[in-house]
Amino acid sequence: MGQLHLGFEIVALVVLVAILIADLLLVVKRPHVPSPRECAAWIGFYVGLALIFAVVLFFVGGMEPASEFVTGWLLEYSLSIDNLFVFIVIMAKFAVPRRYQQEVLMVGIIIALIARALFILAGSVIIENFAAVFYLFGIFLLWTAWKQMGDEEDGGSDSFIMRTVRRVFPVSEDYDGNKLRTVVNGRTLFTPMLLVFITIGLTDVMFALDSIPAIFAVTQSPFLVFTANLFALMGLRQLYFLLGGLLDRLAYLHYGIAAILGFIGVKLLIHAIHEAPLHFIPGFEVLERIPEVPIWLSLSVIVVAMSAAVIASLIASSRAAKAAVADGSGADSES
């Protein structure tokens, strides 16, 4: 792999983190519900920035780091869209006022960035000293893909959190703006915003457990892993508001995510066979003949799986809408 200079990595990380922080600080200075045009402009800016960064990587380190970054970024971006489903469910169940949802997302993105950074550091150390961990990563992703196929929302997780937190902290029934604490009848209480932040934080940690092993199948460079995650988080806030209504129509998206995670799980197992062969297993040499999965194939699977899931969802949604209109027209004519 083309080697990236340490100085370049440090400067790039400082600049990219500064851009993400500047975007998040806009929420503090200008709290508002962004318009679709504003959201689209910001998302286009961040996507363009990611592509420019890939070109810079190509000239600095060659094709390999550039292709690994693009593949990792698309993988993490796909998983981030899955995050949005859960964020929408959390916002709805806690009845977060729409004008404060930007701030909740800001806190969620910060927690996600910290959680992923810690998992990346831990993962890189473990991989460096224990290559057989790829077997565990691969099996874990296959199990996650199987769960994703079921598309079962954990409806009781936030209720459990509410019960647990309410035992420890006095929590009010109503919001008080965007405050974490309020005064009710002379008592100082926490607002439901605390429950929202805790739920979002735990959700971020769970998604990091899925996404970090997945991207280590694409590249073992901590720098590329972190920058891919950083770009996946950029624009996530705007994507939430832009796709808020559309996400309900993407009924088959979880199948696309499951296909990607399943493929990456198999890729990790194949990589583990080459990096940590289990020669005590009879006939293991046969498995070692399986070639490693190339980056271009990983990139192709991610693009095709997500595109197919989105197109199939939109077609199904369009047919359902037409059928509903037809049923409504038939009912009206009968009456």
Concise structural overview:
The chain has 12 helices and 2 strands, in the order ααααααββαααααα. By secondary structure, it is mainly alpha-helical. Residues 152-158 have low confidence and may be disordered.
Kindly describe this structure.
This protein is mainly α. The chain has one domain. It has twelve helices and two strands. It has helices at residues 6-29, 36-61, 63-93, 101-129, 133-150, 157-168, 192-215, 222-233, 236-243, 253-275, 284-287, 295-334, and strands spanning 181-184, 187-190. It has a two-stranded antiparallel sheet. A hairpin with a 2-residue loop joins strand 1 and strand 2 (187-190). The longest helix has 40 residues, at 295-334. It starts with 5 loop residues before the first helix and ends with a helix. Mean pLDDT is 82; it is low at 152-158.
Percent strand equals under 5%
Give the mean pLDDT.
82
Largest sheet: 2 strands, antiparallel
Oligomerization state of this entry? single chain
Order of strands side by side in the largest beta sheet? 1-2
* Helix run count: 12
Low-pLDDT windows of residues: 152-158
Radius of gyration: 22 Å
Percent helix: over 70%
Question: What's the order of the H and E elements?
Answer: HHHHHHEEHHHHHH
Shape: globular
- Whole-Å distance between the termini? 71 Å
